[in-house]
Structures are given as C-alpha cells and as structure tokens.
Amino acid sequence: MSKESGSGDDLSAGQEWSAQSERRRWPREPAVQKEQRLDVPPALEPLRFSTQDLPLKEQFQAWRAHMAPLVDVRLPGTNSPDDGFLAEQVGWRLGDVLIIQQRAPAYSFIRDQTMLRSSPIDHWNVGLFRSGRAWTEVNRRVTEVGPGEALFTSLGHPYRGRMIDSVAVLVFLPYELLAANASLLQGANNTVLSGSLAELLISYMTGLEANLSSLTAGEVPRVVQTISDMVVACVASSTRPDTGQIPTGMGMMERAHRYIHLNLHSDDLTPDAMCRALGISRTRLYQLFEASGGVFNYIRKRRLLQAYADLSNPADNRQISEIAEAAGFNAAANFTRAFSHEFGLSPRDIRKTVATERPVVPAALPTPRRGTTIGDWLSLAH
Q: Taking the domains of the chain in order of start, what are their residue ranges?
C-alpha cells in the first residue's frame, strides 16, 4: 500500500525538506524577542582575575593567594614558579550561585580539616571540564573527570587532588539552596554525573555560558532555579543507593548551616541553642559567621531569602503580613524595609511580578569589588 506523496511525514533516501514543508510543520514566530530585550539592561557584570599582566615569577603566588580561601594550591614537582603560571578566571554572580569560567595550567590542591574549621565556605560544586583532566580524592576514594564530564563535590568535606592544563566551568551553589536534598547530595560527594540528565545539564550550561553577559534581572532567578533542579536530578540519577553510612569529616560550617535550615522558622533559633546543638562556644560560633556579618545577620538573610521564595511562589496565597511574621518580623513595615534593602524590590513588587509574569528590574545592582579573591566572590554571591 503506497503512502500519499507530499504528506511531509516520510522522506525517501536523499530527499530534502522543501521550504514549503518546513513552513507548514514549524511555523516561525516573529523575531521580536531580541528587539524587546534591548530595553532591558543586563543584570550581570563579570568578576575577573588573571595573572597575564604580572611578571613570570609573581604569577603563581598571585594564583595561590587568589585561591587560598578555597584550597591550598601547589605546583607539580617538575615545575618552577619562575617559569610563570598563566591562569585566568571570569566569575558571574547569579544571586546566590557563582559560575566561574577557568583556564589554568597544571596544579595540585587540598582542602583539609584545618581549613574547614575556619572557612565559611561549604558550597556544593559542579565542575564541567571542557579540556584537561582532574583527579580528586575524598575519604580515600579517587574520582577522575575529563572533557565533556561533570564532577559533583561538597566543599563542606575535606578533599585533595590535582589537575593538568585545563579549561573548566565551576558552578558553586550554597548549601542552603539545596538543603532540602542534603542527604541525597552528601551521598553523591565526589561523583561524576552520568546519563542523559547529565548530558542535558552540560548542554544547558554550555548554552548559558554564551548568554551570561546578556541575562536580565528577571531571568536570573529562573536560571538559578533551573540549575538547582537539574543538579539535583542529575545527582539522583547518578548516585549509588544510600548505604546508610553517616558522612565523615563534615565541616563545622556545614553543620551550622544545616541546623539553621532545619530550624529557620523556630523562635528558639538563637546563638545559645546553636552552641548547645553544635557543641561549640559562642566565640567559635561568632568566628564561623564573621564573614557573613554575624550569626544574627546570616539568619535574618536566610529568612528574607525564604520570604522571597514564598512571595515568588504562585501557589502560596498567604498575605504578605503572614509571610513577614514567618520570617520573624512582627511589623509589616519593618519587613518591607528590610526586604527592599536586601533585594532592591518591595514584597509587593515580587507579588506583582508573579501575577503578571513580567520581570521587575531591581532599582540598583551592587557593584562588584575589584582585586578580590575567590573567597570574596563566593561571599558576594552568598
């Protein structure tokens, strides 16, 4: 039984789609998207670090100082600092998420228990390798990652490793952003993400890279949510079944962040309660949160971020006053003032955005500081 000719559903060998068939099957939308975006200013300004303009003898020390808040870096045994170390990073802050495009020669790295005890950094990290190769050891298990692959690690646990000359994209997500899936993620520490979902994540990040400089303020929260959802989905499909083992070597900062997340709306979330639960002194607690402006400031910001998420949720029909009370504000005016200072938008602006599905551009975007370390970049994003 012969098939109708010209149906547009089957093609014989070597036959090409006619222009008419293409128009009929995939009608083209008017090209107005880019024209509309011309009136919306880009939200992101890149943070840059490079050793290129430094004398050869100073390049590696500059790189080591830049990376010091995150890891201690060393040169391979056969390399000398006098030979130079041409490395560069471009950072992009998407709310609480930091994306870094990195190009660097070979080096080794270590993040040990001493660093964990004093560091406020306990982010999740996804490393997407474009070229080069890296080996990372966590709890005596070494994972190798290469071009076209993605490695998932926790900065709340000690690790060490090395990499050869490489080009990579590093995605840092704060603990709280994915805290609801912490158990799943901890079980996947130092895992190469695999499968079709990992391929989708890598493809998405590749496309996002090309558009980072043109993202608008209204698009950033959606991008952050997409990255978060995709990372959790990738981990869920890549990780081994939970063996019931308790993670070892967890950093104190990660424990503190987890406690705050679990008790965020409790009236008993106080420094004294945290000290008792964590088994540390008040002095140690304040040291942990010094980089975040203090423990009270940190809790206040996390509650405001939760309020932002609640206001952005179309399914949450609570009054603004109820959300304010849940965030620890007895007076709606105080909540509005604090919220507007934190985000540059009022709670009503956020509700209006959700209702109209049109992005509201913040009144002012913070100007990134120059000459900062990767730790400063993470603090700015956090």
A: 47-239, 252-356
pLDDT tens figures, 57-76: 999 999 999 999 999 999 98
- The CA–CA distances, whole Å, from 315 to 216, 311, 345, 351 equal 24, 9, 20, 11
pLDDT attached to residue 226: 94
- Contact at 8 Å (CB) between 185 and 117? no
Q: DSSP code of 132?
A: S
Q: What is the pLDDT of residues 152-175, one digit of tens each?
A: 999 988 999 999 999 999 999 988
313 sits in which H/E element: none
- Residue 39: φ, ψ to 5°: -90, -5
- Token representation of residue 235: 């981990």
Task: Kindly tell me the burial class for residue 360, based on how many C-beta atoms sit within 10 Å of its own C-beta (0-12, 13-18, 19 or more).
Answer: middle
Q: 156 vs 87, 222, 361, CA distance in Å?
A: 26, 26, 34
Kindly report, residue by residue over 251-295, the tens digit of the pLDDT: 677 778 878 888 888 888 888 989 988 888 888 888 888 877 788
Distances from the Cα of 125 to the Cαs of 46, 129, 152, 209, in angstroms?
A: 19, 13, 6, 17
Q: What CATH architecture applies to the domain 47-239?
A: Sandwich (2.60)
* Gap between the Cα atoms of 303 and 326, Å rounded: 8
Write the DSSP assignment of 234-295 as a string of letters: HHHHHSPPP--PPPSS--HHHHHHHHHHHTTT-TT--HHHHHHHHT--HHHHHHHTGGGT-H
Q: In degrees rounded to 5, what are phi and psi of residue 38? A: -60, -25
Is pLDDT of 322 > 80? yes
215: nearest Cα among 226, 228, 200: 226
* CATH class label, 252-356: mainly alpha
- Type and span of the H or E element at 6: none
Give the dihedral sign, CA 61/62/63/69. Answer: positive
Q: Cα separation of 197 and 138, whole Å?
A: 24
The answer to whether 175 and 186 are in contact (CB under 8 A) is no
